[in-house]
DNA sequence: CAGAATCCGTGATGATACTG
DNA sequence: CAGTATCATCACGGATTCTG
């Protein structure tokens, strides 16, 4: 990058703008878990950003009923999704991505693109590293 | 897969650009842990992007020797940092952030800003949710 | 100084069974 | 269908000790 001849002022700006020590601890806590991003992502793909519980369950490969429930509860608590309960028989529950929840996906675009563009190199690095160790 | 009814073009574009199903699992795996981002961040702030082991240890509050070692090993394996060993007495080891490692910080800027701007609202949501539950 | 090795508690996750 | 309730597991991280 352009860090040649970096001044203290730049450094200070960098410190203030770049990374907040505490908040981004493990990337905001919840985002680091196994399913949250997947759930948000799936909801964002749905038209009107709503999906039923069972739909999510089917879409997200490998997730258990329990973990989907827990993940959705966490997202609801943070205000990332809204829960719509329809007291029918059988019951129907829809989860809707809020503006807040949609916003975080946008903020993740940069990281997502970066991963897409660099993941193969990372895998290559790992291969080399592991090979050298044996 | 059933795509019946939906605009496949939109959906397809969205799928390709938005989120890669697997790779971003819990955000690229390693990034979700407790210390990795902190370590990268600290290194990025250092001039010439190098710091000694002990320096990192002092800067990152709460990290143990063990976790710093493990985190650095992981980063080295991925090619995010380079390890420079100086066989002196006492030994000195410096860790240098690579271009790859620096790049991921940039890609995290968006998320970082978003968290900074929205974390208070999230906390408020949690407060409300928890209160309603009691 | 920069680690390696070991033990251990805890939280996150998984598997299974039951229910309104 | 959309959960809840239990139990089992397992990786992550912390604390401690030892060493070249």
From TrEMBL, chains A, B:
<feature type="domain" description="HTH hxlR-type">
    <location>
        <begin position="22"/>
        <end position="123"/>
    </location>
</feature>
<dbReference type="GO" id="GO:0003677">
    <property type="term" value="F:DNA binding"/>
</dbReference>
<keyword id="KW-0804">Transcription</keyword>
<dbReference type="InterPro" id="IPR002577">
    <property type="entry name" value="HTH_HxlR"/>
</dbReference>
<dbReference type="Pfam" id="PF01638">
    <property type="entry name" value="HxlR"/>
</dbReference>
<keyword id="KW-0238">DNA-binding</keyword>
<dbReference type="InterPro" id="IPR036388">
    <property type="entry name" value="WH-like_DNA-bd_sf"/>
</dbReference>
<protein>
    <submittedName>
        <fullName>DNA-binding HxlR family transcriptional regulator</fullName>
    </submittedName>
</protein>
<keyword id="KW-0805">Transcription regulation</keyword>
<dbReference type="InterPro" id="IPR036390">
    <property type="entry name" value="WH_DNA-bd_sf"/>
</dbReference>
């Amino acid at each position: 990058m352009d860090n040649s001849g970096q001044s203290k002022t730049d450094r200070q700006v960098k410190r203030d703008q770049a990374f907040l020590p505490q908040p981004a601890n493990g990337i905001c806590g919840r985002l680091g878990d196994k399913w949250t991003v997947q759930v948000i992502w799936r909801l964002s793909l749905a038209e009107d950003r709503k999906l039923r519980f069972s739909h999510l369950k089917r879409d997200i490969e490998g997730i258990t009923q329990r973990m989907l429930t827990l993940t959705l509860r966490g997202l609801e608590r943070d205000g990332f999704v809204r829960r719509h309960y329809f007291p029918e028989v059988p019951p129907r529950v829809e989860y809707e991505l809020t503006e807040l929840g949609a916003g975080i996906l946008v903020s993740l675009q940069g990281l997502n693109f970066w991963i897409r563009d660099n993941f193969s190199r990372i895998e290559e690095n790992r291969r080399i590293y592991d090979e050298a160790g044996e």
